[in-house]
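Thread: Newbie trying to understand structure tokens

Hi all, I'm a second-year student working on a class project, and my supervisor (Dr. K.) asked me to get a predicted structure for one chain before our next meeting. I've only ever worked with sequences, so writing a 3D structure as a token string is new to me. If someone could post the tokens and maybe explain what I'm looking at, I'd be very grateful. Here's the chain:
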Amino acid sequence: MSIGILLVTHPGIGSGLLHTATRILGACPLRTKCLEVPADADTEPLLAQAAEHLAALDSGDGVLVITDIFGATPSNIACALAEIGRAAVVSGANLPMLVRVYNYPGDDLDTLSEKAAEGGLRGIHRYTCREAMHHREIGS
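---
Reply by user tm_fold:
Sure, no problem. This is what the structure looks like when written as tokens:
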């Protein structure tokens, strides 16, 4: 068995992250579904659809639900899922987060949710363009 991944995001974000992560890794090592939530959407049918995805993805080990902006509608739907089934929710979806999750397909739900948050944070750096050019010049 393995953890399922459900991306609950604003339109274009989840599918874009999934597509890019799969291209980088060459495959998608965990069962993954996307639910993209339009700004003007009625949340009741979307919550029902999210619950269906959750049930389909959970093979007994749970589902990691990754959402983009904490407190936004996709995040609220994701949080509601944690009350419905065995799910851990992590917000702040980004590519380093998803790639890190896919690199540890055998981890349990709690460990994988920690690695998702850690991967997301480690993927964020602030630097000047001059620093970026310096790294490029020295091959770092």
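A couple of things are worth pointing out once you decode it. The mean pLDDT is 93. Residues 43-57 form the longest helix (15 residues). Feel free to ask follow-ups in this thread.
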